[in-house]
Every structure is written in C-alpha cells, then in structure tokens.
C-alpha cells in the first residue's frame, strides 16, 4: 500500500479565471501529489485581462476557517498567498505563531497583480515584515523584494543577492528572490539560506502566458517539500516542473490576456 499523500493548505485569494490564487494552488497540489485544502482570504473579480474588484473576507472569518479546519485536519505544509489587508496578515501570523515551527510554511508575499491592481493594502507591508520570522521560506518577485527591503527593485543578480540577505536579516530563514521579470535567454532565481546561496537558472520559455507563475511556483514548492524533505531540492524540482507548465501553456485557450500555465502537463 502506498503512503498517504501530504495534506497541503493554501491560505489565499480566489482568481475566477483559474490561473492564479487558490485555483492555481489547488491544481498544482493535485498535479504534484498533495491533497489540497484551502482557506480563502478574498474574492477577486478577475480575468486574464486584469482585476476589476476585490471583496475581502472579514479577518475574523479567516481565523474561523483556519481554526475549524485544523481542529479536524492534520495539515502537513502551508502556502500563503494574497492576504489583502493588515488585519488578515495579523490573524494568519497569530495562527502560525501558535504553532511555532510545527508545520513548514511557504509565503508568497503577493502585493500587486501583473496588470497592476493592488492585492495587499499599502499599510499591510509592516505586518508582512512581522510575519517573516514565522515562515520557512519567502518567495518575493523583484518588485516585492524591493518593497520588503524598502529599496528600488533589483535590476541584476548582485541586487537580488543584496535584497535576499536583507530579507533573511528580517527573520525569514530561506529566501527565493524570483528573477522572472529580468530580461535574458535564461531566468535566474536567487536562493539564500543558512548554507549560502544558489542561483537557480532555467531556460526562458518564450510565451506571454505567465499569469499565475508566482502562485504556481510557491504551491509547487509547498506540495513537494514533504515529499523531498529538503527545501532546495523541492524548489529546484518545482522550478523544473513550472518550466514544463509554462511550455505547455500554449496548448490552452483561456482568455484574451496573458493566459495561465498548464498545470496538468506531463510530470517529468
Ligand atoms: N518566461 C519564463 N520562462 C521560464 N520561467 C519563468 C518565466 N517567467 C517567469 N519564470 C519563473 O517563474 C517563477 C515566477 O517568477 P516571477 O515572474 O518573477 O514572479 P511573479 O509571478 O510572482 O511575478 C520564477 O521561478 C521565474 O524564474
Ligand atoms: C487571487 C490572486 N492571487 C495572486 C495573484 C498574483 O498572481 P501572479 O502569480 O501572477 O503574481 C493574483 N493575480 N490573484
């Protein structure tokens, strides 16, 4: 008899177009052999062309969803995405702090959608900083790493290295600064943990269908961590799998804007 799949929890917002948010997370969990559970923080009115509105779940009800779930279900690993506002960040931080170190946590500090809509209030950034010591890995893109370190977004690997170190100094033990928005024939992400840094490079897929890549990468790391039991290995495998999902995205016909990656491409 094979072992039970790990139970993964995503705490994130809904993207009705299915490329990002909770929908991307649950598809990724399923594609990579984890059982998915989900606590919603916000609904967005969203398509591949952008976000037209956000309806925030009351923070107390986020708390209630979390408490009710974990009273019954033993969660093996957690991914955090869109948190919308400071009060929700604080509710989720309190939930993590009460379980200090028991469960691995991947934080994708979602702030602004690709098309430019705010998915986190400006005044919630301070609250995100207090969450950092309670997570296992944080995965900012270039813009988010700039906001977390109160500096301009990095424009090269040296800048990413500096900001990764600054984010570790804020208390996150492992940092992945994602370089998807830099030009070049390769995409390079910078990993930094207590053992040092690794540059994770893959070929750049020539596609405009990149909606939800950040959500998909962080949930792939989440699904794989309990199976690989090693963060860097889980992250490398997640990135390789995402590259395949980006390549296969051309097969999908979803929307008129930048479409989603294909979560159910053949697993390597
Ligand atoms: N065109 C691409 N080809 C291959 N990998 C990509 C491409 N665009 C982004 N990625 C990868 O997708 C992940 C998400 O990166 P990024 O786009 O920087 O973050 P976000 O989606 O949060 O803005 C990273 O691992 C990055 O290297
Ligand atoms: C509900 C929700 N959460 C997150 C994102 C960010 O998406 P991306 O992965 O493209 O940065 C999004 N567009 N919508």
TrEMBL record:
PANTHER family: HYDROXYMETHYLPYRIMIDINE_PHOSPHOMETHYLPYRIMIDINE KINASE THI20-RELATED (PTHR20858:SF17), PHOSPHOMETHYLPYRIMIDINE KINASE (PTHR20858). GO terms for molecular function: ATP binding; hydroxymethylpyrimidine kinase activity; phosphomethylpyrimidine kinase activity. It catalyses: 4-amino-5-hydroxymethyl-2-methylpyrimidine + ATP = 4-amino-2-methyl-5-(phosphooxymethyl)pyrimidine + ADP + H(+); 4-amino-2-methyl-5-(phosphooxymethyl)pyrimidine + ATP = 4-amino-2-methyl-5-(diphosphooxymethyl)pyrimidine + ADP. This is Hydroxymethylpyrimidine/phosphomethylpyrimidine kinase. Keywords: ATP-binding, Kinase, Nucleotide-binding, Thiamine biosynthesis, Transferase. CDD domains: HMPP_kinase (cd01169). Coiled coil: none annotated. Pathway: Cofactor biosynthesis; thiamine diphosphate biosynthesis; 4-amino-2-methyl-5-diphosphomethylpyrimidine from 5-amino-1-(5-phospho-D-ribosyl)imidazole: step 3/3. Residues 15-262 form the Pyridoxamine kinase/Phosphomethylpyrimidine kinase domain. One of its GO terms (cellular component) is cytosol. It comes from the Bacteria. Catalyzes the phosphorylation of hydroxymethylpyrimidine phosphate (HMP-P) to HMP-PP, and of HMP to HMP-P. One of its GO terms (biological process) is thiamine biosynthetic process.
